[in-house]
Amino acid sequence: MEDPISGFRQRSGSGIVKRVRLENFMCHSSLQIELGDWVNFITGQNGSGKSAILTALCVAFGCRAKGTQRASTLKDFIKTGCSYAVVHVELKNQGEDAFKPEIYGDVIVIERRISGTATTTVLKDQQGKKVASRKEDLRELVEHFNIDVENPCVIMSQDKSREFLHSGNDKDKFKFFFKATLLQQVEDLLQNIEKQLEKANVVVAELEGSIRPIERELNELQEKIKNMEHVEEISQQAKQLKKKLAWAWVYDVDKQLEEQNARIGKLKDRVPLCQAKIDKQIGQVAKLRECFALKKSEIAHMMKKTSEIRRMKDELQQTLALATKEKLKLEEEYGRKFNQIQKMMNYVRSLQQQVQDTQEQHAKNTQAEESEMEEKLKELQNEVASIESMLARLKEEENALSECVQQTNSEIKEINEMV
Question: Which residues form a coiled coil (predicted)?
Fold first, then answer.
């Protein structure tokens, strides 16, 4: 069946489709058409893409892919061999019915871009500047211009027209009428309202159930208020009795006042004596204050001396530590010298023994060996003399070290006594 002509009628004023531009959409690689304000006819052979323009308008205005009855997903509208598709629609936005003219101006641009993974819808103003990109913004726009792309009276596709013209079933025609006249939308709205009313009734029942204990409590409070009114009458009677009792208290108080005045007179007579005692106590307090100031100055002086003594103590402790360290060094040095002297004395004894042995050997040797032995004896005597001089020097050093150690011990003892 051929379809050489496609046409659609636009209303006058705001919301008129001014221009449609398609890129890689269905069979169109690049298409741009200008539309008039009223009736527009698009002619062409079958498969030339006339219905694709109507489908593009549905997609631009937010229709789902299944709603167009041309594809199951939006990516199916991308032309074969391409990676994306673009639908660009320009609407007039002039007159009293204009949609946010202060933001969009005289023209609103709807641009929907479809790719293999996602789709985006952008609303632009007349200069092409991006204004919004949310679905709610597009829904607000189409609701403002009353553009319902799923309503067959707004956009009737070929499939819808064939279904309506060739259907002999009155029920199907009534469904078409029911949807075209927005009765279907009204019914859906009524069903939604009915569901909301059911939920509201449940909430009201719950609230009434929660109010019943409060009503019981309120009734109990009202009963208590009645009892309190009876208590108020009793309170009035009690006030009258208190007034009568007050006069009895007045007589009693007058009597007590007379007794108190007599006591006050006696106390006034004792005032001079008490004043004298107070003056005496004040004088003692003044002396005590002077004594306190004196003691305070003495304490301050003692605190100053204490701080000096503490400082001296710290210095003496430091000196003691240094002296102890020096004592340890001297004791170590003394030990080393003492050991050295012991070694030298042992060495001298061994040399003397050698001299003695040599002398004895000298007496036994022959005359020929005597001269050689004398030379050896002289060498030994010289070595003994040098060792004895070294030993004397070491003894002097030992005495000096002993005196130094004794002096250090006496200094440490004095420091300990001072501390």
Answer: 179-238, 313-411
